[in-house]
Amino acid sequence: MTRQIGIVKAMAVHQKTTRSAPEKIEGSAREKLLRAAGELFYAEGVHTVGIDRVIERAGVAKASLYNTFGSKEALVTAYLTERAQTRQEALTQRIAKEAAPREKILAAFDVVAELVKRPGFRGCAFVNASAEGQPDADGVRGVCTSTRSWTRALFTELSRELGVREPERVGARLALLYTGAVVSAGMDRNPDAAEDARALAAMLLDAEAPKRTRRARS
Amino acid sequence: MTRQIGIVKAMAVHQKTTRSAPEKIEGSAREKLLRAAGELFYAEGVHTVGIDRVIERAGVAKASLYNTFGSKEALVTAYLTERAQTRQEALTQRIAKEAAPREKILAAFDVVAELVKRPGFRGCAFVNASAEGQPDADGVRGVCTSTRSWTRALFTELSRELGVREPERVGARLALLYTGAVVSAGMDRNPDAAEDARALAAMLLDAEAPKRTRRARS
DNA sequence: GAGCACCTAGACAGAGTTGTCTAGTCGGAG
DNA sequence: CTCCGACTAGACAACTCTGTCTAGGTGCTC
């Protein structure tokens, strides 16, 4: 809370969803810390896991953490930022495989279906992290709102390509289904939620998309 | 964690959704503690708020807390249990005003719409609380799963009354919309999510309900 | 008036937290 | 060889947290 050395750029994610940041291949201690933080913070909660556990898992010294990130909070936001990036890459790559907007949208829910079936799945990292933090004024909120607006923008854009009447509204509803799937699957420990959300999305698209268009012309 | 005096009955909620438990009108310190816990834990998170803050807000001595509940964790589960009860009562009362199953289901989303517009709204208390706790083996999980299954059962039952083909599936999807609305509204600080969820629910019911039935005969 | 249930005030133990600081190791570049 | 940057190991300060325990007050009933 006092000095805050590096990690100010953290908020510059958003958009560049290609892969492997061109900035600089970060050193080793940083990567080890981020990996350990990703495992522990997600699995047990940001608050529950102390710094000592993280550095022990990472196999680095405490000074390395504070030289690299400056504070625990900065490590947390870095962890969330990386997670957001990974998720956005997974979505865009999977979506790129489909040609038609409708299939692209549904493919996003296939990503969710796969995600929630993974062994350590424990719900949405952003929802979880922002449930723990102070109400405002922390970096966590920033990453959360930017990730959520990214997802909503993605769905809105694809809805626009589909040619629906109100892309913003449809995008918001698809994002709601996305959130509902991830959170429900986490809470109920039941991956079926992803397929339910996919079916609801298909239903929404059937109702909103103009039936005439048949030639794919993005 | 050591002794655990009272509060073992906490899990006996579920079902009796009438009002005012017939057991015994609890003493004053307990009520004050529950009220303070409800405000602070929900607003700032279970982990962030310490015992001292709770007893200060409640205006009771620390010994009263430990005599009444036995531990912080027991207070947390009591807080969640009470919250679940309140929510279930609000839902059942609002639903009772409608005659047709379809309107009952949509009325549940009106409750959400009203809920997310309230000043201190900060998402789903159960999602938030279970994001903070240990992965398993705590009372929080118990309250969460029981509340969630109650909600899903409610929607399933109403779907059955509506006469859909697969009430379980429709109920699960309505519950997913419910969760999605509450969590999205909390994360995005945007109450519109409730209306989106309501619209999606209406769409789902239109698609699933048999069109023939016109006489309301529950 | 005595006894009793219920309450308050607050010191304190013991553990856990983040963050700082010293001292030292190691591998390469000049 | 020497310097330098990046790292390790871990002691330590300065908290905060839960939970316990003593000491005492207040209002009720018998």
Give a written overview of the molecule:
The structure is a homodimer of 218-residue chains. The first copy, chain A, has helices at residues 28-44, 51-58, 62-68, 72-96, 101-116, 125-132, 139-162, 167-188, 192-208. Chain A is mainly α. Chain A is built from nine helices and no strands. In chain A, 66% of the residues lie in helices and 0% in strands. Chain A has two domains: 25-70, Arc Repressor Mutant, subunit A (Orthogonal Bundle); 79-211, Tetracycline Repressor, domain 2 (Orthogonal Bundle), CATH 1.10.357.10. The interface between A and B is large, with 42 and 42 residues. Chain A binds a DNA duplex (30 and 30 nucleotides) through helix 3.
Annotation keywords:
homodimer; 218 residues; mainly alpha; Arc Repressor Mutant, subunit A; Tetracycline Repressor, domain 2; 2 domains; 9 helices; 66% helix; disordered N terminus; DNA-binding
Question: Which helices and strands occur, and which strands form pairs?
Answer:
The structure is a homodimer of 218-residue chains.
Chain A: H1 28-44, H2 51-58, H3 62-68, H4 72-96, H5 101-116, H6 125-132, H7 139-162, H8 167-188, H9 192-208
Chain A binds a DNA duplex (30 and 30 nucleotides) through helix 3.
